[in-house]
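Changelog note: in this version the structure field was regenerated for every chain. One regenerated record is shown below for reference.
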Amino acid sequence: MNTTQERFVYYYKKYKGSPLKVLLGFYRGSYHKFLISAFFYLIKHSPSLFSPLLIAGVINGVLAGGDAARHAILLNTGIWLGLLSIHLPANYLHSMYRSRVIRSTEAGLREAMVRKLQELSIPYHTQIQSGRLQSKIIRDVEAIETLSTQMFVNLLNIVMNLTIMITITAVKNRIILVFFILVAPVASLTVVAFRRRISKVNRAFRLEMEETSARVMEMVEMIPVTRAHALEEVEKERMSRQLQETAEKGYRLDMVQSNFGAAGWVVFQCFQALCLGFSGFMAFRGLILVGDITFYQTSFTTVVNQFTALINLLPIMTKGLESVTSVGEVLSSDDVEENEGKAELKEVRGEFSFRHLAYRYPGSEKRVLEDFSLDVRPGQTIAVVGESGAGKSTLMNLLVGFMMPESGQILIDGQDISTINLKTYRRFLSVVPQTPLLFTGSLRDNITYGMDHVSDEKLKEALEAANLKKLVDQLPQGADTLLEEHGANLSGGQRQRIAIARALIRDPKVILLDEATSSLDVVSELEIQKALERLVKDRTTFIVAHRLSTIRNADWIVVMEQGKIAEAGTYEDLLARKGIFYHMESLQMSLR
């Protein structure tokens, strides 16, 4: 278990259902660092811990008078100053040990989640909203970091403070010790009374926050559509309802936590008042010194504060343990793409064979692909057309290996895709999706994404092939011009051409174009078509096309209907048959 992810998953699966054990197991090997941090925390706060005893010593010395008073004042003041002198170095060491372990773990957990998200299957990502995943990476890991601090630092400090105070009190007066001991069962009863309720409302609030995060991301992405249709007020109302629901659940959580803390505080203050009265009565009877009243009262205040802090930890711990479960659900998910032990491809010729392919999405009764069979020779260009829902995009996802067939086979150069290490296969693959995906960075970075040491000449070739040369020449910094988020400072056609250049610069053996020219104007489309005709030479190409005029030169056109191949042939053959393809082409011609 060398990685953060492996350790967390191991203990999550071992102690599933007990997030506290998961966290304790996860930090195994770092306990000594937390103990060292807690030790220095104790040293750091020693002036506060021993101040009641020192104050009581001064008061009793003054009451005694004479040399005893002088000696008591000097001794206790000197000890206090001595303890204060070690506060700063102790604080530094305490913070260093605590922060180094927890912050590295926090970063490790986020890195583990990022790595896991890269491993999880595409169906997993389509089933869970990205906003929820963002909430888990940011909010839940932060809650675990807070929980770690509370458990391994503050909780240890509370235990040590209680131990010291109770020990000193036991040595001085065992009768007063009874008040100290009685606090423990009262605190336990208070925790038991509120624990289940706090856990329930914490879970509800966590889920609501994930939903809100997802809705906010959707809202931001939909702003252009919202503005274009004058739906701002509708969207404001929708988000307002969501935020109000979140606020309501947050209010319930606040009230439960507030009542919990208030109940504990009242009970402890009652004990403290009784302790004051009892110690005062004992001093009046001469059973203890007058200065000891200050010591016992201050000590009991410290004990009460520690138990109060312990009780106040419950909501924080409940929230953190809920986040342990939330993070564990992602890190332990088995819905991953398994490539280990599978055949690694050193080269791809581009021969494909689809044998009785069938697929249905999870939870659906209807198959989106049914008995799909097709043989593709290396270097052929295959166009796939059909109405929406015919199964075109599903076929492309299966080709990339995002999903595996329910039945049937996809053979790549004679090898079943299910037996291939898909990472090695995809190195020979370039995909241009229907919606171009760009990130914040330079145009060069977007095109050469994931590639090292791309020469200017190779970049120039890709730009020219994708009809981007004129655009780059007009940009202030050329190819190094920074793009805004999602390429917002470019037109739809320009963004699509960048995605095409990104695919072409990889010199792939197999190209997948999913409506790749749908966002281009007529002039750009014609120029791109000419470039693609040169670039697809000797490469196996699959094209999902909406504009039928763009696939005239395809070697083979497959017309899909309800997941099946309805027609197949060349452009001229299909027009001559006057079947489905002919009617689709005629309809598009009439609309031009």
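Spot check on this record: DSSP finds 20 helices and twelve strands in the chain. The chain has a mean pLDDT of 81.
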